[in-house]
Write a structure and sequence with these properties.
Blueprint (H helix, E strand, L loop, with lengths): L3 E4 L2 E4 L4 E7 L8 E7 L6 E6 L6 E3 L7 E6 L4 E6 L8 E8 L9 E2 L3 E6 L1
Parallel strand pairs: 2-11
Antiparallel strand pairs: 1-3, 3-8, 4-5, 4-9, 5-6, 7-8, 9-10, 9-11
């Protein structure tokens, strides 16, 4: 079992930056891929990016590539989403999620989400 808690959301002007954090419980954090997803009002949840357990591989949605960066600190059971050059269309609730590829291809563990609002 993994429990996830996001933090760091808020209101920012377009062009600004925010750094989201996700704290994870458990002793095998490095065994989990960590993903970031977002859901805007009235929209479907969408993939933002993922980082492998080792931290050596990341992948991003085209909409955020070059602006967002995912990193992790396995010693502290933390994953981060650095968001730069924010746009109003980045406004959404952001969720971190975990999956253990030895068990499932699905992200089975989710945080409660943190709101990011980008004003124009």
């Amino acid at each position: 079992q993994v429990q996830l808690v996001e933090s760091g959301g808020g209101l920012v002007q377009a062009g600004g930056s925010l750094r989201l954090s996700c704290a994870a419980s458990g002793r095998t954090f490095s065994s989990y891929d960590m993903g970031w997803f977002r859901q805007g009002s009235g929209k479907e949840r969408e993939f933002v990016g993922v980082i492998r357990g080792s931290g050596t591989y990341t992948a991003y949605a085209d909409s955020v590539k070059g602006r967002f960066t995912i990193s992790r600190d396995n010693a502290k059971n933390m994953v981060f989403l650095q968001m730069n050059s924010l746009k109003p269309e980045d406004t959404a609730v952001y969720y971190c999620a975990a999956r253990n590829l030895y068990v499932s291809n699905n992200f089975d563990y989710w945080g409660q989400g943190t709101q990011v609002t980008v004003s124009s």
